[in-house]
Amino acid sequence: MNPIVTGGILWTVLQAAGTFVVSHYLRDDNAVYGTFGRCSDSSPGSASPPR
Could you tell me if 24 and 17 are in contact, meaning their C-beta atoms sit under 8 angstroms apart? Predict the structure, then answer.
């Protein structure tokens, strides 16, 4: 197999693994990293005023 093709395949696998690891670590950190993860408590622009 061509070394460039092999490198491209390995690079894609590494990117996918990195994405999985980062999303795993940020899953429970919505308060700090809300932009990167799912924010289930509010949607953008619907913040309620402080009580």
Answer: no
pLDDT tens by residue, 2-15 = 999 999 999 999 99
pLDDT digits (tens, 9 = 90+) for 35-46: 555 555 555 555
Distance CA 37, CA 15 (A): 18
**Helices vs. strands in the chain: H and E counts, helices first:** 2, 0
Distance (Å, rounded) from C-alpha 4 to C-alpha 7?
Answer: 5
Q: Which residues contact 37 (CB under 8 A, 6 or more apart)?
A: 23, 26, 27, 29, 30
Structure tokens at 24: 């795993």
